[in-house]
Amino acid sequence: MKSVYGNAGLPFVAHLLAVFLLPGTLVWPQAGRRQDTIPRFRAESELVLVDLVATDGKGRFVSDIRQDEIEVLEDGKRQKIRLFRLEQGEIPDEQPGEPSPRAARALRDVQKRGQGGYVVFLLDLQTMDLDSAERSKGAIREFLHSGMDPGDLAMLVTIRPAFQVDQPFTRDLEKLETALNQVPYRREEASLEEFAERVDEIFNRFGGDIPPEVPVSYAEMEAQQYLTDLRTRLDLSCRAISALSRYLGSLPGRKRVLYFSRGYAINAYHRVSEIIQRRTDQLHRGLHRPRVATLSKLRIGNMASIYARTLRSAVDQANRNQVSVYSIDPRGLMLVPFQHGTYYDIGDVEAPQEFLATLSEDTGGLLLTNENELVNPIRTAYLDSRSYYLLGYVPDARMEDGKFHRIEVKVKRKGLTLRYRRGYETVAPEKAAQSNLANAFKFPDLYRDFPFRLSIRRDGEQWVVRPLIPEQALTFSDDAGRKRCDLEIFGISFNATGEPLGENFLFAKALEMDFSEPELVSFRQYETFSPSLETAIPEDARNLVVVLRQRRTGMLSAATHRIGGSGALK
Fold first, then answer.
1. Average pLDDT taken over every residue of the chain
2. For the chain, counts of helices (H) and of strands (E)
3. Are strands 389-393 and 323-328 parallel, antiparallel or unpaired?
4. Cα–Cα distance between 360 and 377 in angstroms, integer?
5. Which stretch of DSSP H or E encloses residue 78?
6. In sequence order, what are the beta bridge partners of 482?
7. Residue pLDDT, tens place only, 325-360
8. Domains and their CATH numbers in the chain
9. Structure pTM?
């Protein structure tokens, strides 16, 4: 066993946005060997799974579709269906021809799995006002007592704005309701409505004799702050959904996430310009009306494409893990809120729903809006996800090609509405590794691929950090007759506001374990493997997050230690 790199500071983060909010920017040390393929589909397979929901003209699920009535195309090319099952029922008949050994193993794995009763309630409180938050919580309480199957497992997660697993999966509805009641509300909303109201206040401070450039200039500063906040929150929500999907991926069957959110205006940069322009036109009606150049002045570029890429990444991760997102807009019946002369229209109010619609439709879920009784869309989402056809095929294209592959499903019946994921984007191993490592620090509760715990003690000016890893948690692979496991250990300290301290990892270490068969047997005799690292912990640190990665399998696990003042551990 040898250590490849020790505790030297390694380039990590210049700013929180640069690492956790922008994809592909995390830098971590390399161990000199090429990263093995990171699992992207369940069972590391070539098998592509598609959940198909077919409903008739009255919205009822159609349960008698035969396999020979279904056609699946990828990038316009017909695919041979290897797996066909209704509601995770009987093992299906296979089509003629044999898939590759890797795909065959994945096929057998999927056939053995039963339908999982898993539902996740995800409340994105950074998009809600107090009324929306309380209405969402109240509707969930009502559903728990009147509509949820007692055999199902439920999980409660919130973004407020920090990500929080408030209640892991449980069948105990009382425990779930207690966690729901304890969810605090902090006003973090940054909506177009609020932005329009602030713009209205700015213009009201100036009369018609003031040059229009003055209030416009102030309004553009508000626009810049709004767009910056929007990007931060949208990115956090997308990363949270991605990490949650990966966490759910190991569970059997179709997983449903009920996402309570008012959404994000993907085209916000156009909307803010139009709001300012409409208010400018009203203030200087009949006079010289300057055209608002918000986009050029703010130098924000085409942010819609950035938002779309961020959203696409979340959708792809959900699809890779058979997660369907059901978006529930807690605002209820949509009306144009006209207050204090604010100039925005129904398009501004509905703009955030484009985000919700894409997230749901592209993962095979539903967008549920304009419902004042929120328990009704919860029931709709819950019941909709219980019946579906599971289709599987082995594509001709290799999964490492880094392209988006469009999926189309056709059924030889008229009058049916079909819902399924519209495609998948393959992910390069290096990019997947970067994203997963960054998310492990951001959402440590969702990265527990294998067990370990931390032992931390002070030794003079240094702290000694020892991950305690059960021997059986380490996965060794064959490599030219040797047994190998490459373990990487990373640490970052965070301040009280959740920002990483410093521009480097606190520590980063790689261990290459290379054994013969007898040596591995001897190594396995020890119950726990506990490598040691020495580091200094900043005095203003409040949390220490340690992430372990088994590089050959891509498995990640994270643990958090609470730190008191002056580097004292609690």
1. 79
2. 14, 24
3. unpaired
4. 13
5. strand 77-79
6. 479
7. 999 999 877 665 544 455 567 777 788 899 999 999
8. 2-38+433-567 (2.60.40.10), 42-115+387-425 (no CATH), 118-384 (3.40.50.410)
9. 0.77
